[in-house]
Amino acid sequence: QVQLVESGGGLVQPGGSLRLSCTASGSIRMYAMSWYRQPPGSQRELVAVISSGGSADYAVSVKGRFTISRDNAKNTMYVQMNSLKPEDTAVYYCNAVSEAWGMDYWGKGTLVTVSS
Questions:
Q1: Among 21, 7, 9, which residue's Cα sits nearest to residue 77?
Q2: What confidence tens digit (pLDDT) does each residue in 26-72 have?
């Protein structure tokens, strides 16, 4: 069974940085992996996506501040979040789509709070 587990969330001051990790426990090769987030009282939104080949795209709200990466050998995805703003406060979710069957997997989320 494939499971995605996020880590690295926490409390950070505005202007600070955090690095989130998402590790897939199974051995399934992922076609694409993404970070989503859900601010308090808001809908879930796409933050960044990265293909198995390393091509990345970002939401306008985080472009230039966030960097997504992945280590296929470790089946792990990361997002480096710099210059954090209060509006970045959200539960951040890991998402992955398998290459073999196009299965969609979700992590349970990790909370990022940006506040003084």
A1: 21
A2: 778 889 999 999 999 999 999 999 998 899 999 999 999 999 999 98
